[in-house]
Design brief:
Order of helices and strands: HHEHEHEHEHHHHHEHEHEEHH
Number of helices: 14
Shape: globular
Largest sheet: 6 strands, parallel
Helix content: 40-55%
CATH architecture: Alpha-Beta Barrel
Strand content: 5-15%
CATH topology: TIM Barrel
Length: 290
């Protein structure tokens, strides 16, 4: 009931923002080449994801690849007009039908950042926390070793169904021309709660495993939970990652492109109205609430 009420209020607010012309102003700025629209999802339903892609195509947005973004960061020339980059975090089972198949249908590039341990074992750590009726946000504040120990204790008492892709499925979607596979660590930890050795291993091991699975280089990355610092950026450089994304809600402009390992993105939640998804995708929602 609370979720339905929240989504109803969200839909009404989004319709109000749209009626004020706020989304129209963002479209105009994008058309003028003021920024690249940077958007990410986790586990969207097909209807919602397809709505977003169709809306972008209808409004003549140009979909960029990771290599396109890297090139614009290195070249001294104006940003492309009406450009967008689409990314998806974690590697959920639902991404196959709801993201990959839609991307292939409309021939638009999408990068999926995958954590390797859930692929190998089936379930994300926070699902165990939720199943144990505990507070996920509290566990994100714990030192990594303590979090791992407490999650293991819960795992020993709860059996959950697979929610992440299998390694074979990762290999399969990597064969799509429109899909790029990126790194998202091994265990999806809060990197700022890890020691130096653990951070390096999370970034390095996941890269090695993914490259073995898909037989392609993996040089893009997304910080789990958007948590990072100078240490994480330095390790990404050492490991030859070329581009990385935060969860900072901002437009990808000439200034932010200078920090190619700290790029911003706008997050589109699951199970929301199309109106709210549009406002989130264009950064209108985050300007008021996030």
């Amino acid at each position: 009931m609370k979720k339905k009420l929240r989504n109803l209020i969200g839909r009404l607010l989004a319709i109000f923002f749209i009626s004020l012309g706020l989304t129209r102003r963002v479209k105009k700025r994008a058309k003028n080449g003021e920024f690249i629209l940077s958007v990410f999802f986790h586990n969207p339903g097909r209807e919602l994801f397809e709505y977003c892609i169709k809306w972008l195509l209808k409004n003549k947005f140009v979909f960029l690849t990771q290599n396109d973004v890297i090139a614009y960061s290195q070249q001294n020339k104006p940003l492309p007009k009406n450009a967008v980059i689409i990314t998806v975090d974690d590697g959920w089972q639902g991404n196959i039908e709801n993201v990959v198949k839609v991307a292939a249908k409309y021939k638009v590039p999408v990068t999926i950042f995958i954590s390797t341990e859930p692929v190998q074992n089936g379930v994300y750590w926070w699902s165990y926390i939720e199943a144990g009726n505990k507070n996920v946000e509290f566990y994100k504040t714990l030192p990594n070793d303590q979090r791992l120990t407490e999650v293991k204790d819960i795992k020993d008492t709860i059996v959950l169904n697979r929610e992440a892709m299998t390694s074979d499925q990762v290999k399969e979607i990597a064969e799509y021309d429109c899909i790029t596979i990126g790194g998202h660590t091994v265990n999806h930890p809060i990197l700022t709660k890890c020691n130096d050795e653990d951070v390096y291993n999370e970034l390095n091991t996941s890269k090695i495993v993914l490259e073995e699975w898909i037989n392609k280089p993996v040089d893009s990355f997304a910080y789990p939970n958007g948590s990072y610092g100078k240490r994480e950026v330095e390790y990404l450089k050492q490991l030859n990652y070329s581009i990385a994304y935060t969860t900072k809600a901002a437009y990808l402009n000439e200034s932010s492109l200078q920090n190619i390992l700290e790029l911003p993105r706008f997050f589109v939640l699951e199970n929301i109205s199309n109106a709210e998804a549009l406002c989130r995708m264009l950064g209108v929602w985050q300007a008021f609430f996030d």
